[in-house]
Design a protein that fits this description.
By secondary structure, the protein is an alpha/beta fold. The protein contains eleven helices and ten strands. It has helices at 29-41, 64-75, 102-116, 135-147, 161-174, 197-204, 236-239, 245-261, 265-274, 289-298, 305-314; strands at residues 4-5, 12-13, 17-19, 46-48, 84-89, 121-126, 151-157, 181-183, 208-211, 281-284. The strands form two sheets. The chain has an eight-stranded parallel beta barrel. The protein has a two-stranded antiparallel ribbon with strand order 1-2. Helix 6 (197-204) links the parallel strand 8 and strand 9 (208-211). Helix 3 packs across helix 4 and helix 5 packs parallel to helix 6. The longest helix is centred in the C-terminal third of the chain and has 17 residues, at 245-261. It is globular, with a radius of gyration of 19 Å.
């Protein structure tokens, strides 16, 4: 399996990243351990999480995912230096604004390090822009963490092209570390948030891209084809957005190519993202070993030019 460089960060990743939002939520601790063991045994190496996962669940406060990953790391089945750990800071927690102030970043990173049971984070991301904090203050705070050895590389998530451009300009002007990785939403259904100016900027500036929602909250697995199918699902609130003409067109293309490749729609949808220009690796989640196998298969599935084109047209 070919490793892919994450821009200029010095980090490399396998073609698919494990989305750790499910750990401690829809995947309990023991299931999470089994999933991570299998993922790394298959040659993959990167886990994505955030300090706010999974604060949206009643009774949770955020940090549950990091705690599970920390316990898994402590087991020692995978050496710490063989795992690329990505976590994020700055997303509001249950209505409580956190933001990206220097003071909050310094506090939040210590909490994340403690939960993860490690003395460094491989990639630390600004979870979303903070209009109330100057970007220079945020970059200075990240720079201090890099100097202290607590963070190896930095990046951002959910930034638009003008916001990323502002951050890059501030880095260059003030001699501050720059965002070397972007995490946008991107999948067969939702393409406009990355394609165009943002993708072009990332290519021009050699920024690594690990995109989230590769399976559109599970819709692209083909499991949800009617509104009734979403009942009782933890992600029903998102899946309903895709049950329309465009969504059905994409599912039809996935079904057709599934027959040709003997791969699942989920595998094909992830492989499509992994093959798109400017994408380093898509992020996908699994809550069972069966679902994980579909992710693992995506790491080696090569879609033909014709198959890529049909998918492109279906999701246009």
């Amino acid at each position: 399996m070919q490793s892919r460089p994450l821009g200029r960060s010095g980090l490399t990743t396998a073609p698919v990243v494990f989305g750790g939002n499910v750990f401690g939520w829809t995947a309990d601790e023991n299931t999470s351990f089994d999933l991570l063991d299998r993922f790394f045994e298959a040659g993959f190496n990167t886990i994505d999480t955030a300090d706010v996962y999974s604060a949206w669940v009643d009774g949770h406060q955020g940090g549950e995912s990091e705690l599970v990953i920390g316990k898994w790391l402590k087991r020692g089945t995978v050496a710490r230096d063989k795992a690329v750990i990505v976590t994020k800071v700055g997303f509001d927690n249950r209505g409580n604004k956190t933001g990206l102030s220097g003071r909050w970043i310094a506090e939040a990173v210590e909490a994340s390090l403690k939960r993860l049971g490690t003395d460094y984070i491989d990639l630390y991301l600004a979870h979303k822009p903070d209009a109330d904090t100057p970007i220079e203050e945020t970059l200075e705070a990240f720079g201090r963490l890099k100097d202290q050895g607590k963070v190896r590389a930095i990046g951002c998530s959910n930034y638009e092209a003008d916001q990323l451009r502002e951050a890059l300009d501030a880095s260059a002007k003030n001699g501050l570390p720059r965002f070397d990785v972007l995490q946008p939403e991107y999948n067969l259904y939702t393409r406009e948030r990355f394609e165009g100016p943002l993708a072009e900027l990332c290519a021009a500036e050699d920024i690594g891209v690990i995109s989230y929602y590769a399976l559109a909250a599970g819709f692209l697995t083909g499991k949800y084809r009617r509104k009734e199918d979403t009942e009782g699902s933890a992600r029903a609130y998102r899946v309903g957005d895709y049950l329309n003409e465009k969504g059905y067109r994409i599912l039809a293309a996935l079904d057709e190519i599934a027959v040709e490749t003997n791969a699942s729609p989920a595998t094909i949808a992830i492989a499509w993202v992994a093959a798109r220009p400017g994408i380093t690796a898509p992020i996908a989640s699994a809550t069972s070993l069966r679902q994980l196998d579909a992710m693992i298969a995506a790491g080696s599935l090569e879609l033909s030019d014709d198959q890529m084109q049909r998918l492109n047209e279906a999701g246009a």
